[in-house]
Design brief:
With about 270 residues, the chain is mainly alpha-helical. The protein has 12 helices and 5 strands. The protein has a 3-stranded antiparallel beta sheet, with no helix packed on it. A two-stranded antiparallel ribbon has the order 1-2. Helix 2 packs antiparallel against helix 3 and helix 5 runs parallel beside helix 7.
């Protein structure tokens, strides 16, 4: 108990090396890897890339199923414009990470592309299908909140196609496919409904795709935009332990402090 409290205090004070050391002494590799990733992020923020890679490699050695370590590696590869290496590492990560947490990898890559901007060597003003950043829709009723660039989609989709049928993998595959081909995205969304006919995010995107190009009255379009905007404000992630709902991915629940308890809200009134 004393060592656990020391680990928590170290983490709260920003002493991630101390936290990792204490969790290692408790033989808790999941938490140890988490704080090794934090050390890797600190090093990267200081421009110490070799040091960051060292900590990240150590995290994956300590806990090969560490979703945060794999996500950090994928994000770095995306920012460096290394799409092929990203795809290779994504395949390995999907094999090692717990099945119920695999969506975190895909959500994290997409979220980083939105917030961190284009990959290295690519202009933020690049246009057309080859642009290398996520493009936000100009209207609220456009399918998916942001569309991944072609290079990222072409790298990721073949990896997802090799996975066994899975609701969330299929949904994120549809999201990536939206950067390539509308019909391919529709096919992936329909696959999610075969697994779970009530999966609301897929229903929303299919509705918005069906509305594209339709002659809609101004009143109907206004209502569609309103409800699609509200639907996208729903907190999509939930702690499986205490039920806390969040709009962003988390690795430790802020309320109950459970590790890797995140889930996707499959039911809108969950």
């Amino acid at each position: 108990f004393i060592i656990l409290e020391l680990a928590r205090l170290a983490a709260l004070s920003g002493d991630y090396a101390g936290a990792a050391k204490h969790y290692a002494s408790l033989d808790y590799p999941l938490a140890e890897a988490h704080y090794l990733v934090r050390l890797a992020q600190e090093a990267a923020d200081k421009g110490q890339e070799p040091e960051g890679r060292k900590w990240l490699d150590r995290a994956l050695k300590v806990y090969p199923a560490s979703v945060e370590a794999w996500l950090e590696r994928l994000v770095r590869l995306r920012r460096a414009g290394q799409a092929k290496a990203l795809a290779e590492n994504l395949g390995r990560a999907l094999d090692l990470v717990q099945k119920r947490l695999r969506f975190v990898l895909l959500e994290g890559v997409l979220a980083d592309a939105v917030h961190a901007g284009p990959a290295a060597g690519v202009s933020a003003e690049a246009g057309g299908q080859g642009e290398a950043c996520l493009t936000a829709g100009p209207e609220m009723d456009r399918p998916f909140s942001a569309i991944p660039d072609r290079e990222l989609a072409e790298a990721v989709l073949p990896v997802l196609e090799r996975q066994e049928p899975d609701l969330l993998v299929s949904f994120y595959a549809a999201w990536f496919a939206a950067g390539l081909d509308r019909e391919q995205a529709v096919t992936w969304l329909e696959k999610t409904l075969v697994v779970n006919s009530g999966f609301w995010p897929a229903r929303l995107e299919l509705l918005l795709m069906a509305a594209e190009g339709q002659e809609l009255s101004p009143a109907f379009r206004a209502q569609l935009e309103f409800f699609s905007a509200r639907a996208r404000e729903i907190k999509r992630f939930v702690c499986r332990t205490c039920g806390l709902k969040r709009e962003q991915v988390f690795f430790v629940c802020p309320r109950c402090m459970s590790w890797h308890s995140i889930g996707y809200r499959l039911v809108i009134n969950e």
